[in-house]
């Protein structure tokens, strides 16, 4: 960079070309201080009013992270503004997040080209305003401006409706763009993959004359997202057989696919190939490998791989926090989160989602602290984090807080609705849960099987038999959702609680597959008072399908107690002592950011004996104070 201060006396006599060279070197530094000094010199000699130099200075302010006020001042100083001046200022306002100000500037533009329209479409899409982005695209075509390939690639990345995606594809063809174009073809594959239209993705891929590594990766990821992991592995093998090169994104997708399929053997083979090709140090591959071991119940390998990494970033830390959460190591997940903050690793929405899923194991103060951090970092508007907050407060029993967070959400996906309905149901607010379901049908996305599980459970808790039967029929007939064991279990329990024993038995007989433990458990729990031989037969069936027989034994124990079969109860308890491991209950207390765990036998922390001695002394003091106060009261009487 030319020393600007040194050239203050010469810039008065210099040419425009010299100023351009100074501006070019300011671009490489991206320093707001140098930009301000250079701008002051241009103002001093009057060059700031020249269109070309003014545009360059305006672009400098936009890229250097200056404020929107500075950008508008430079823009106002340009005497003859052309379309480039307007576009740079528009892009700068959008980068600073001033979407409404950018809209006003866009309306004032005397001339708009494809860059102007693309900037507005990107601005709306980045803020999550998909409808406004599509409306800008419609107005763009009405105004006679020809969309570019970049326009279509932007829109295809934000379309989440099947009809909208097909319309974009048709418009692209009508405009004369070839789907064999690599950029457009890759965008179409990705779009149809997100929409779940796997056949369309394959059709676009096969119709492309030129394919790059992004094309193959997009198709493999599409197979994984649509739940066809075996096809993804087959296409990966085909990609390798045809001699195409692979990268870290390819291996990340394949390892994630093996994780979803729970195929540890193939995942380890892919990991060995990663090590051979030198991709293991990539954070995407490392995080996918941690997820693979975690989901395949190889927790120790996940920890070992994480500890061997030389560099941590948000991807690998998120995977490890999720691993701790999945295996119920809540305290380890929280400690790792604190460590990432100390290492200046910025958390993402997935970090908070994993952490909030286990924070209910701690006192509620820990959850509120995480919530405050979410608000401070600006993640409270994210749908994933908001859903996790709704779930956390529901588990704590603070349903009003969960409802308030849900009501403030601007974009509510199906996960948010399902989380709130389940939270209301588990807190015995069944009327509110059903009202929320009605609101979902009116203004929300299409319900899925989890939604119907939640509302059928609410009907079971509330004893709404007719409503539950109607919803069960509607799920099959109106929404085409095949009932699973969870749905049958809720309906069986609902019918039994209403005394409709014969209908429940007939329903079990109509299940098109072998009922699992949920159905038999519901049946056994509902008919606790009945024919003992029938109940014992159901317990045998339940033990056949349950990996852990403790639940079946506990149910039968309760039934023996209710029916007064004391001899059978004694024999059953003797059997349980030899077969079933006892479940030790525990409680915890938080003191000075430290969690102390008490189980049924001892204190699970160092210094437990001292704590118990202190508690015993406090108990004695309380008893002495109680005796003294009682004596004083008697004397006064």
UniProtKB/TrEMBL annotation:
PPR repeat start-end pairs: 82-112, 113-147, 212-246, 313-347, 413-447
Listed transmembrane segments: none
Offer one example of a GO biological process linked to this entry.
RNA modification
One annotated GO molecular function: RNA binding
Q: Name one Pfam family in it.
A: PPR
Keyword entries, A-Z = Repeat
This protein is called: Chlororespiratory reduction 4
Organism of origin is Linum tenue
Q: What is the lineage of its organism?
A: Eukaryota, Viridiplantae, Streptophyta, Embryophyta, Tracheophyta
């Amino acid at each position: 960079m030319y020393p600007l201060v040194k050239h203050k006396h010469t810039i008065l006599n210099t040419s425009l070309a010299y100023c351009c060279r100074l501006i070019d070197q300011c671009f490489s530094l991206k320093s707001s201080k140098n930009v301000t000094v250079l701008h002051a010199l241009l103002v001093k000699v009057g060059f700031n009013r020249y269109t070309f130099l003014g545009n360059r200075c305006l672009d400098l302010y936009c890229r250097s992270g200056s404020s929107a006020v500075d950008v508008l001042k430079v823009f106002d100083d340009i005497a003859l503004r052309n379309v480039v001046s307007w576009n740079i200022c528009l892009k700068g306002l959008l980068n600073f997040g001033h979407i409404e100000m950018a809209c006003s500037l866009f309306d004032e533009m005397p001339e708009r080209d494809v860059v102007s329209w693309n900037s507005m479409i990107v601005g709306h899409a980045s803020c999550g305003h998909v409808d406004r982005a599509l409306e800008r695209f419609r107005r763009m075509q009405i105004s006679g401006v020809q969309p570019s390939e970049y326009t279509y690639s932007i829109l295809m990345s934000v379309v989440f409706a099947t009809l909208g995606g097909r319309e974009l594809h048709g418009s692209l063809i009508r405009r004369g763009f070839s789907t064999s174009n690599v950029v457009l073809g890759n965008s179409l594959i990705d779009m149809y993959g997100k929409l779940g239209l796997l056949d369309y993705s394959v059709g676009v891929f096969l119709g492309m004359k030129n394919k790059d590594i992004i094309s193959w990766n997009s198709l493999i990821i599409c197979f994984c997202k649509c739940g066809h992991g075996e096809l993804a592995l087959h296409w990966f093998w085909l990609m390798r057989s045809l001699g195409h090169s692979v990268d870290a994104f390819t291996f990340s997708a394949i390892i994630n696919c093996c994780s979803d399929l729970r195929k540890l053997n193939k995942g380890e083979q892919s990991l060995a190939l990663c090590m051979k090709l030198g991709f293991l140090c990539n954070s995407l591959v490392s995080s996918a490998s941690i997820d693979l071991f975690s989901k395949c119940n190889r927790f120790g390998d996940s920890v070992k791989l994480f500890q061997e990494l030389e560099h941590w970033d948000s991807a690998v830390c998120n995977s490890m926090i999720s691993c701790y959460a999945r295996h119920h190591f809540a305290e380890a997940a929280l400690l790792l989160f604190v460590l990432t903050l100390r290492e200046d690793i910025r958390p993402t929405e997935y970090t908070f989602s994993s952490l909030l899923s286990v924070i209910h194991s701690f006192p509620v103060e820990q959850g509120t602290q995480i919530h405050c951090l979410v608000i401070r970092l600006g993640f409270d508007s994210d749908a994933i984090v908001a859903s996790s907050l709704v779930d956390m407060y529901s588990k704590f029993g603070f349903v009003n807080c969960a409802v308030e967070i849900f009501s403030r959400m601007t974009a509510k996906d199906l996960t948010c609705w399902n989380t709130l309905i389940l939270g209301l149901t588990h807190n015995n607010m069944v009327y509110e849960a059903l009202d929320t379901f009605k609101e979902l049908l009116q203004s929300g996305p299409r319900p899925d099987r989890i939604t119907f599980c939640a509302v059928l459970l609410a009907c079971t808790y509330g004893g709404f038999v007719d409503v539950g039967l109607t919803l069960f029929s509607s799920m099959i007939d109106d929404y085409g959702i095949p009932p699973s064991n969870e749905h049958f279990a809720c309906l069986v329990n609902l019918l039994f609680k209403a005394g409709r024993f014969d209908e429940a038995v007939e329903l079990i007989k109509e299940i098109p597959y072998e009922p699992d433990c949920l159905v038999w458990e519901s049946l056994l729990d509902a008919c606790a008072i009945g024919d003992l031989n029938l109940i014992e037969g159901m317990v045998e069936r339940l033990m056949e399908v349950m990996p852990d027989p403790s639940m079946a034994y506990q149910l039968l124990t309760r039934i023996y107690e209710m029916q007064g079969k004391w001899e059978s109860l004694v024999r059953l308890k003797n059997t349980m002592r030899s077969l079933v491991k006892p479940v030790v209950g525990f409680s915890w207390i938080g003191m000075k950011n430290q969690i102390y765990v008490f189980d049924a036998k001892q204190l699970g922390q160092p210094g437990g004996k001292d704590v118990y001695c202190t508690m015993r002394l406090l108990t004695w003091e309380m008893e002495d104070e109680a005796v003294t106060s009682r004596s004083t009261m008697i004397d006064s009487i």
